[in-house]
Every structure is written in C-alpha cells, then in structure tokens.
Specification:
InterPro entries: Gfo/Idh/MocA-like_OxRdtase_N, GFO_IDH_MocA-like_dom, NAD(P)-bd_dom_sf. By secondary structure, this protein is α/β, with parallel strands linked by helices. The chain has eleven helices and 16 strands.
Length: 366
C-alpha cells in the first residue's frame, strides 16, 4: 500500500512567478497537510528571494530560482503552481506537463479553448493532474449547497441562475494591472471576474453546458480594447436561463441566486467568503406572500458552514491528494477538473465572440 500524502511525504511545489495572488496560494500550500513549497522561480533571482522572505518561507528549505525553466527541470519538484499572465499559460503549462509536473493553473486557464485543449492534451499525454484555481469550489459550503440543489422535493427543477462579481479598481489598477493589458490578459474582466460567474452558473446547472450565449449590450472597454465590464445571458434547450454581470468598474459585489420550481438559494460572497472560518448562504422552499401581500409567510433559512482550513488550502489539499495518488501508483489523473475547466473556457469564448460580433447569439458546442 502506498504511503499517504502528508507533510512527511508531501507533494513538493514549485511556483512559477511572483504574482500577487501567489502570496495567497503560497500560504494555502503551507496550511495544506500534504504539500510544501520547495522552489520559487522568477525571471529575476532577486524577486524570487524577496518573495520567499516577504511571505515567511524558510530560505533554507525553499530555493530561489532565476528562471522558470530551472524549476521545471528540478527533479525535486512534483507539481507547479502557475500564476503567470494568461498569455504565458500555454507555453509554460505545456512545458510543465512535458516535464512530468502536476499543474495547478491560475484562471482564466487560457486565452481560448483551443489553447486550453493543447494544455490538457499535454497533461493527459504525460499522466499529470490538472486543476485550475477556482478556490470556492473546494469550500465545504459548496458541497452543502449542492445537497440542497439536488433535493427535488425542496428545490425542484432548476429554472434561473443570476451571478454577479464586480469590484471597483482604483486608477492604478485600471492603468497598469496585468488584467487590463491586451498583451498579458486580453480577456480582461471577462476572463478574471467573469470566470467565477460562469463557473458558478455551470456549477448550479450541474455542469450542463448552455447551448447559446447572448452578450448584453453595454460592454465597457479601455482604450486598448480590453473588457472592463460586460454581461451575458446563457440559454439551455429545456428553458433554463442564466445571466451574469462582471466588472472592474462597479462596487464590490459577489452575488449568486439560484431559482428552482420549489426553492431558491442565495449568497453574497460566493467567490471569497466574508470570513475565512465560516461562510453563509440562505435557502428557502415553499416561500410565498402572506394573505394581504404585506410580507412573507415563510422566511428563507440562514445556513452557516464552518471550515478548519481556508478554501485555497482545501484546493491545494485536494490537488495534492490526486497528485500523490499518481506519484504512488494508486490512482490516475482525475478528469473531473479538466472537464470543468474546459466547459468554463468554452462559455468564456462564446461570450467573447458574442461581444465581438455585435451581441449576436453564439452557439456553445462542447
């Protein structure tokens, strides 16, 4: 029997790049019971050293490396976390897979589904685990909400989904962040905050792809043509409808509302919980007005889900469990996560195409 993946037998991570989000994931790797960081790679050796020092990593245990290639060539690295700009994902994700490194890839996973296909093909060809960094998927609240949405008596048949994720970027963000640069993250707000909205819609629909995307008029772009704000409706053949709005120029909002024939679910912090240790949502079934329509007969119930680890650490823990089973020859790469990523990317592509073509309906083909 293979040894369990623990801190004494961990998945050894290398980090490619010192992006701001890498600070959060580095902390998550440190908190996960089955993972450790062994290398941080940057095009600047000094920057890698500063990342190690500024994030409380042990300089004796974590190597600072002055190139991405050196991390990938290191036999002491089992997996890589890649927070590089989206325009660099194809090159470095494929290179990581070709060197047998399990791949934890920031979202959006690629600039288009065709690029993601090349990444996923490389992972499958070399037997490595792929997962994107949609952290909220791993919070225990997500599993609890799924239980309620799967309850046909209390929730019924899914009918509507509405998702919104926005934050108001300051002038420095709107001017210089990589997410507004066409050569670095050309998908802009659609690829960043919109990714979460689209994933939440697919999650609520149990990953059934919609058949059409119709972008909403009113897309906001910067002078370089990068999307700062957009929205879309998504349609299914059976009549389900979803809408989402994502923005870098509207106040912080993280709403998800899911409506069925018998019940409804709502939360206002679906991407990042208000508090790290607990996360709320409301669920109601059989809700209706009182006789005089002056109030509600029944109020939605509040649910609080606690967690001993933050969602980014739970993500790393699950990824490392899968990678460990492959390393120890007790399992094979789990195709669940690549499949979900591909569906998310397909919807991103369709919404982008609808915007680019004047808000026409665009078919989504899986």
């Amino acid at each position: 029997m293979a040894a369990e993946t623990t801190k004494s037998n961990p998945i050894r991570f290398g980090i490619l790049g010192c992006a701001e989000i890498a600070r959060k994931v580095a902390r998550g790797i440190g908190l996960a019971p089955n993972a450790v960081i062994v290398a941080v790679g940057s095009r600047s050796l000094d920057k890698a050293r500063r990342f190690i020092a500024n994030n409380g990593l042990d300089a004796d245990a974590v190597r600072a490396v002055g190139s991405y290639e050196a991390v990938l060539e290191d036999p002491g690295v089992d997996a890589v976390y890649v927070p590089l700009p989206t325009s660099l994902h194809l090159r470095w994700a494929v290179a990581a897979a070709e060197r047998g490194k399990h791949l934890l890839l920031e979202k959006p996973t690629a600039l288009c589904a065709a690029d993601l296909d090349r990444i996923l093909d490389a992972c499958r060809s070399h037997g490595v685990q792929f997962m994107d960094c949609t952290m909220w998927m791993h919070h225990p609240r997500t599993a609890k909400m799924r239980e309620l949405l799967s309850d046909s008596a209390r929730f019924g048949q899914l009918k509507t989904i509405h998702s919104c994720f926005s934050f108001a970027g300051n002038p420095a963000f709107l001017q210089s962040d990589i997410r507004v640069k066409p050569d670095l993250d050309a998908l802009g707000a659609l690829g960043d905050v919109g990714w979460y909205c689209i994933r939440s819609i697919l999650w609520a629909a149990d990953y059934e792809l919609p058949t059409k995307a119709i972008a909403l008029q009113g897309t906001v772009k910067n002078e370089a043509g990068v999307i700062l704000s957009c929205g879309s409706s998504l349609l299914w053949e059976d009549g389900k409808v979803a809408t989402f709005q994502c923005s870098f120029v509207a106040h912080m909002t993280m709403e998800l509302v899911v409506g069925g024939t018998h019940g409804s679910l709502r939360l206002s912090d679906f991407v990042i919980p208000f508090e790290e240790e607990k996360a709320p949502f409301t669920f109601g079934s059989g809700l209706f007005f009182n006789e005089l329509v002056t109030g509600w007969q029944i109020l939605p119930s509040m649910h609080i889900v606690t967690t001993s680890l933050p969602q980014e650490a739970l993500m790393v823990q699950e990824f490392s469990r899968l990678a460990g089973s492959i390393r120890d020859s007790t399992g094979k790469p789990d195709d669940k996560w690549p499949t979900i990523s591909k569906k998310t990317q397909l919807v991103v592509d369709a919404v982008k195409a609808s915007i680019d073509q004047g808000y026409i309906p665009v078919d989504i083909v899986g």
